[in-house]
Design brief:
287 residues, alpha+beta, 21% strand
Length: 287
C-alpha cells in the first residue's frame, strides 16, 4: 500500500479520519523511498515523449515560446526563472505509471501525476486551487508552500472550475509549510495554495479524483433507463399543449414528486450502495 509506506509509523486510520478530505498534512522524510521517481533522468525521459503535455510559466512571467522537448531546453528555461511542468507524466514513464496504479488501488479513484521543476528563489503559478485531492512528493530541493482553506468555492468539481477563481475574496488565514527533499504534503481538494522555491526543486503532484455525490448520479442514470417510470414522456409544454401554464406546472410538480420518491427508494436500497462500491472497484478506464 503506497499510503502505508508514505505514513510510516503514523496511523493510517488517523490520517484518513482526521485529514483526508478535511485538513492538510505534511510528513518529514516520508517519501524518501520515491526520490528516483522524480529525478532528472525521469524528467529527461518524459520530455522526450512526443505526446508529453508540457506547461511553462510562473506567477511573475508569462511564457509564449516553444515548450521544451529535452532536458537541456528545460534547464535553460529554469535559468530564466520559469517553472516547467509536465501534466499526466504517468503516461510516459513506467515508474510513475506504477506509482499511479498504487494510488489508484489505495483510493479507488482515477489518478494523474504532474511533474514540476521550479528554479531557486522563484514562485510557482500563483494562488489557485484544484478539484483533486493532491499528494505533493518533494523529490529534489526545497519548496515553500502556502495554504488557505477555500470559502469562496468549497468542494469544487473539475467541470465547474472557473477561470477567475476570485482569490481576493478569500478571508481565511494562510498556513506555511516547507518541504525538503523526501518530505510530502497532502492538500485537500479545493484548498488554495501557492509555492516558492528556496532551492531548485523537482516535485510530483499526485492528483486523486475522489468520488463525489455527482458520481452517484452518473452511476444511477444507466439503471434508470430500464425503468418505465423514468422513460415516460412528460406533458407537452409547447404551443400545442392543451394545458394552461398553471395546470402544466401542477402536473410537472406532481410528476417530479413521484420521481423523487422513486429515486429516494432506490438510494435507500442497500443493493444500490453495494453496486456502486463494486463499480468503483472496476479499472479506472471503465468508470
Amino acid at each position: 500500500m503506497v499510503l502505508a509506506k508514505l505514513l510510516g509509523s503514523v496511523s493510517q486510520a488517523a490520517f484518513m479520519q482526521e485529514h483526508f478530505l478535511r485538513l492538510p498534512f505534511a510528513l518529514v522524510a516520508g517519501c524518501s523511498h520515491l526520490a528516483a521517481c522524480g529525478d532528472w533522468p525521469v524528467v529527461e525521459h518524459v520530455l522526450s515523449s512526443p505526446e508529453a503535455d508540457v506547461i511553462v510559466g510562473s506567477a511573475e512571467q508569462q511564457f509564449e515560446g516553444k515548450t521544451p522537448t529535452s532536458l537541456e531546453e528545460a534547464r535553460h528555461l529554469l535559468s530564466q526563472g520559469l517553472t516547467v511542468g509536465i501534466r499526466h507524466a504517468e503516461k510516459h514513464d513506467v515508474s510513475l505509471a506504477e506509482l499511479a496504479r498504487a494510488f489508484a488501488t489505495d483510493f479507488l479513484a482515477p489518478i494523474d501525476i504532474h511533474l514540476y521543476c521550479t528554479p531557486a528563489g522563484k514562485p510557482g503559478f500563483g494562488w489557485h486551487y484544484d478539484a483533486e485531492d493532491v499528494f505533493v512528493l518533494q523529490t529534489r530541493g526545497k519548496k515553500e508552500w502556502w495554504l488557505r482553506k477555500n470559502t469562496v468555492n468549497p468542494w469544487p468539481l473539475v467541470e465547474t472550475l472557473p477561470r477567475d477563481m476570485k482569490y481576493e475574496r478569500e478571508i481565511m488565514p494562510a498556513m506555511r509549510c516547507l518541504l525538503a527533499a523526501g518530505d510530502w504534503l497532502y492538500i485537500p481538494a479545493g484548498y488554495w495554495h501557492r509555492t516558492e522555491c528556496q532551492e531548485e526543486s523537482i516535485s510530483l503532484s499526485v492528483g486523486i479524483q475522489s468520488p463525489t455525490a455527482m458520481n452517484v448520479f452518473d452511476f444511477l442514470r444507466p439503471q434508470l433507463l430500464d425503468s418505465l417510470r423514468w422513460r415516460q414522456r412528460l406533458p407537452p409544454a409547447g404551443e400545442a399543449s392543451p394545458l394552461a401554464h398553471d395546470e402544466l406546472l401542477a402536473e410537472c410538480q406532481a410528476l417530479f414528486e413521484s420521481l423523487g420518491a422513486d429515486l429516494s427508494k432506490l438510494l435507500a436500497d442497500k443493493r444500490t450502495a453495494e453496486a456502486f462500491l463494486n463499480h468503483l472497484k472496476q479499472p479506472t478506464g471503465d468508470q
